[in-house]
Design brief:
single chain
């Protein structure tokens, strides 16, 4: 069962990430020159693209930067698609489920090419399943199965290194949806 305090803390962290410096300055009762300058610069830049959407009671649309600001976990594991043990880093799936307030028994993970897999949410709590954004310390490009790849800790749990779990290790993830397709 997700901890309600942890859920509120994650929601607060995410809201701080997306708040503009100008909005924060207004909320504090002033529009400091630094805040105006930062807001002006952010208007001049192209907005960072959303790379992951999560549908739940609290829907999320996350950029790569926002995903990086969430607590990260590193897993060293083998996969059927890489040689030897690799290091993957990303946010724990269970943290995103908590953040989006998802309580369904299953989630659907969708890839950019519309491939999808159904994952039992219990897996997120039973194992340290992550949504990896980095492999061996480097951000993953689409060519490298990024920008987001579901990684199960196959090396830590021998029973996971089988086809039924490999199918759930969706790469180029674009969306997590509460429920089954």
């Amino acid at each position: 069962m997700p901890n309600p305090m942890f859920s509120r803390l994650l929601a607060l962290c995410l809201s701080l990430l997306v708040a503009s410096p100008l909005a924060l300055a207004r909320e504090a009762g002033s529009e400091a020159p630094a805040a105006r300058n930062a807001a002006s610069q952010s208007r001049d830049r192209q907005p960072e693209p959303v790379i992951l959407t999560v549908t739940g009671t609290r829907p999320l649309s996350l950029t790569a930067s926002q995903l990086q600001q969430l607590p990260q976990r590193t897993i060293r594991t083998v996969t059927p698609w890489t040689e030897g043990v690799r290091e993957f880093r990303g946010v724990l799936l269970r943290d995103l489920l908590t953040l989006a307030d998802i309580h369904s028994e299953r989630i659907t993970v969708r890839a950019l090419n519309d491939y999808f897999a159904s994952i039992e949410t219990a897996d997120a709590y039973r194992y340290d399943v992550i949504l990896a954004t980095h492999q061996d310390g480097q951000p993953m490009s689409r060519r490298q199965k990024g920008p987001v790849w579901v990684i199960y800790p196959l090396s830590r749990h021998a029973g996971l290194n089988q086809t039924s779990y490999h199918r759930k290790m969706v790469w180029q993830v674009k969306a997590l949806e509460a429920g089954s397709p």
